[in-house]
Write a structure and sequence with these properties.
One of its GO terms (molecular function) is hydrolase activity. By secondary structure, the chain is an alpha/beta fold. It contains twelve helices and five strands.
Length: 235
C-alpha cells in the first residue's frame, strides 16, 4: 500500500520559488532600495546622464528581464560581482525577520523545494538567513548558476547574438526556465512555480510549469497565500 504523501502518489514533486517579493512582501522596501542603487551605479560607474537614468533603468528591466542584462546588451562593460556588491550592499536587510510559520510549513512538506532567483548567490544567502529559511531548500538557482558559461556552451544554449561572456540569462526568458529545469533535474509538469511577477508566471506556463502568483496587489493578503501552501497543492 502506498503511503499518503509519498513521491509515488504526490501530484507535484517539486515546489519552485522566486525569492524577492515572493517569500516576503514588497512593502519591506528591498525592491525599492535595490532599484535606487542600480540607478546610482548607472550614474556613478557608467556615466549615464542623470536625467536619463530612471526611465532607462525601467525600460531595460522591462525589455531584458533585469537592468544589468540590458546594460550588457547595450555594450556596457560591467563586472558581475562588483555590480551585485554595489546594488545589494546597502539594502535594508534588517527589515527581514524570521518567518517561523513559513519555515515550519516548508519543512513539513515532502516535495522538493528550490529557489529560482535572478539575484546573485550572496544576496540569496543573506535573505534566506535573515528569514531563517536557509535549510528549507535543497538548492538555489541564481545568477551564477544560470550564467555558468562553460555549462551554457556545452549545452549549445547561446544563440549567437551575443558573446557568452556578456550575455545574461534571466527570468522571464523561456531559456531561463528551460535551464532551471535542467539544472535542478525537475519535471515542469510536476512542479509548481511561485512568483510575484505576471510576466515570469506567463513564461513559466509556456515552459510547462504549474504556477501560482504571489502578490500583495491581489485581493488576498500576502501572508494568506504564502502561509497556506498546502491548500494550493490540493486545488
Amino acid at each position: 500500500m502506498a503511503l499518503v504523501g509519498s513521491s509515488a502518489t504526490m501530484k507535484y514533486d517539486c515546489l519552485l520559488f522566486d525569492m524577492d517579493d515572493t517569500l516576503y512582501p514588497m512593502s519591506l522596501g528591498l525592491n525599492h532600495a535595490c532599484r535606487k542603487n542600480i540607478e546610482e551605479f548607472m550614474r556613478t560607474y557608467l556615466n549615464i546622464e542623470e536625467s536619463e537614468v530612471p526611465s532607462m533603468c525601467l525600460d531595460l528591466y522591462r525589455e531584458h528581464g533585469t537592468t544589468m542584462a540590458g546594460l550588457k546588451a547595450l555594450g556596457y562593460e560591467i563586472d558581475n560581482d562588483s555590480f551585485h556588491a554595489f546594488v545589494h550592499g546597502t539594502l535594508p536587510y534588517q527589515t527581514l525577520k524570521p518567518d517561523l510559520v513559513l519555515r515550519s510549513l516548508l519543512l513539513s512538506m515532502p516535495q522538493r523545494k528550490i529557489i529560482f532567483t535572478n539575484a546573485d548567490k550572496a544576496h540569496a544567502a543573506r535573505v534566506l538567513s535573515k528569514m531563517c529559511l536557509e535549510d528549507c531548500f535543497e538548492g538555489v538557482i541564481c545568477f551564477e548558476t544560470l550564467n555558468n558559461h562553460s555549462l551554457e556552451e556545452s549545452q549549445n544554449v547561446n544563440d549567437g547574438r551575443m558573446n557568452p561572456a556578456t550575455r545574461i540569462i534571466c527570468k522571464p526568458s523561456l531559456e531561463s526556465f528551460q535551464a532551471a529545469a535542467i539544472i535542478a533535474n525537475i519535471d515542469p509538469n510536476k512542479t509548481i512555480f511561485f512568483d510575484d511577477s505576471d510576466r515570469n508566471i506567463a513564461t513559466a506556463k509556456a515552459a510547462g510549469f504549474h504556477t501560482v502568483i504571489v502578490s500583495s496587489q491581489l485581493y488576498f493578503p500576502y501572508q494568506a497565500l504564502i502561509h497556506n501552501l498546502k491548500m494550493v497543492l490540493i486545488l
